[in-house]
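Ticket reopened. Same input as before:
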Amino acid sequence: MRITVKTETCVGAGQCVLSAPDVFDQDDDGLVTVLDAEPGPEHSDDVNLAWQLCPSGSITVTEPAVQD
Amino acid sequence: MTDTDDQLVVDFPLRKEGEEFPPPRYAEYRQREGLVLSYLPDGKPVWLVTRHAAVREILTSKKISSNPDREGFPNIGETMGVPRQDQIPGWFVGLDSPDHDRFRKALIPEFTVRKVREMRPAIQAVVDRVIDDMLAAGNEADLVNDFALPIPSLVISALLGVPEADREFFESRTRTLVSIRTSTDAQRDTASRELLRYINRLIEIKSKWPGDDLPSRLLAGGVLEPRELPGVLLLLLIAGHETTANNIGLGIVSLLENPQWIGDDRVVDELLRLHSVADLVSLRVAVEDVEICGQTIKAGEGIVPLVAAANHDETVFACPHAFNPERSAKQHVAFGYGVHQCLGQNLVRVEMELAYRTLFERVPGLELAMGPEGLPYKYDGVLHGLHTLPVRW
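Engineering reply: fixed in the latest deploy. New output:
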């Protein structure tokens, strides 16, 4: 899976950091930052929870195409 | 709004004395197609929203506003223990994006997961001190007054850099504000004005002698104007005080009833979901026509998302009335959703965790000093909670 985030809509709730601490962090402004943009399948439950809990819809999770 | 044959119409208040919470009728509302039409005490119609997905949709819709000055915004006749503060600059829960976002962005760095983790020792010290006082006073206490209310008040004073010598003043005034049974309107009005005056003085002092605290950093940051800071600080206090206290008190009752869960930190989100103290806090008004659950909400119509109803939606939380810390409770909307979602949610979680853990560790023989059926629940305000919680050990 591939993760993209939008800092311009992030409201700094920190739910992604709590759900998937190996994948997401908050920068000095408290906004989302991605530690691992292509995490392995062992992180998929955590990432899904982060995506579900994000109150501002600032996380996108996609399956990259094989040709990428 | 048009009344049709299958339109359910109900009157406020939605909660009645002596009944369980959430009120049983919330489940009825949730089963119906569409939304429920309700009339507020002022005679104005509003739409009640009860399903989890619909509440999340309302709270993230760009066609819906949080601005209480807009025509049609629900006036439920109650605010959180204080006179309406909407006119105070910096009261940014009543602003929509983008006006709101400047405030939120200025405050986010103060409430990050990391920042709250750094605050744990200070929160633990507050909890310990409150328990010291309780134990020194004898072998019984009212856990609302002696434990649940002082903890968030003292945590917020630390956050705001309130000097040690002023903490008792700060704590007593914040307590008066929320004690709707034991204080008069006049006393609460006085306490509210004294607190606002105190906050104004605190900001003056912090601008001359900055400290390692939130007001000093906001002043130095320059994003917010000094005239906006009193409203911001008062909002942090009010949003974080009685809400947290009610969660602490109600959670203790649940843990006494389910002692096998004492000491397990997974209880926190399940307790937030189960008790949903801020049921009536996220009021809204439509700015444009918007369709929710097949019902068109017209521009200018008021909306009351019922957070407790959403958090007991059986399609998301099986057996919603059961206290089950093993379920995945985290999708609850106890802190709201969307851009206004509670800024202090990570702080509240830590306050609850440390309050429960420390109380049951340090007061092992704790028990209710009355039958649980007689506990005085708040049923007539915007927040669910307990007026008192008599215990002994």
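Chain A touches chain B at residues 11-15, 17-19, 26, 28-31, 49, 52-53, 55-57 (CB under 8 Å). The beta strands of chain A are 2-5, 24-26, 32-34, 59-62. Please confirm and we'll close it.
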